[in-house]
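Fig. S4 source data, part A: sequence.
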Amino acid sequence: MEAVRTMTALAVPDQAQLATAGCIAEFMAGFSIEATRPSAADIASLAVLKRGTRVYLSAIPNRPAEESIEAALQLRAAGLEPVPHIAVRNFASEPALDAFLAQLNDEAGVETALVIAGDRAECGPFHCALDAIHSGVLRRCGVRSIGIAGYPEGHPRIGADELHRALTEKIAAAEASGLAVEIVTQFCFDARAMLDFIARLRSLGFDQRVRVGLVGPTSLTALMRYASRCGVRASAQGLARRAGLMRQMFATATPDDLVRALADAAPAGIVPHFFSFGGVPATGRWARAVADGRIALDGEGFSVEPPPSAR
């Protein structure tokens, strides 16, 4: 009988735990994920997401634009909201960008895009995102809202003053042309850095919604590889400590501690945005479970519980 009472007590969370779990689920409402060249199987796996969930499509240099259009079509058919990255340096002319955007809008109903410069060294008429915004091509081709990039840990090649100036100019140009704006950040492994970044934005008068970049379920080796590739100033040792995986390099790390810390802080106007480095299906399943409140609090984070049908 004592064992039964103990199991029952463990199974029933107290009111504080319920409140915390509720805050986490509320914070997760409206989350988005990012995919790079998703396959048909990847997109089919996203049936676990709520209809209308935003799925951002990364831009890859030297890949045909048709890949993004096809992925956007498949996402729209699956009831999801495709949000392609528009890397403006990839377009040799304004008519080329015009044709690409028009096809996305006409065939996949795309009205939101993330506008970035892109990593290509050479470029045509568009050197930066601001050039494309100023051109009027986005609005002309049916785009109604855009995301612009934010960097909680700074940019490896651009100083803080220049980043602030560029952000100010892009927001002003977009709003002047009738485009709604939100800020989508590079992924980060430090909740304090994210919260400080949000606080700086608000103190400077930026009240736009911010999608904070987090990495979905991923092995620690992949986390370190992408952190190095993307110029995120997070050491391998720090990542290992955060995930508690120093001696488990191939185990899966999840951003539960970051999600919980951000939800606890509850700054207004922020939404999680998950990079799917560990795979689109795993990211989609994990994020939907957390948004549904299927979690068990654990230390400073939480674990995801299986769906009722799997218990």
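Fig. S4 source data, part B ends here. The chain has 13 helices and twelve strands.
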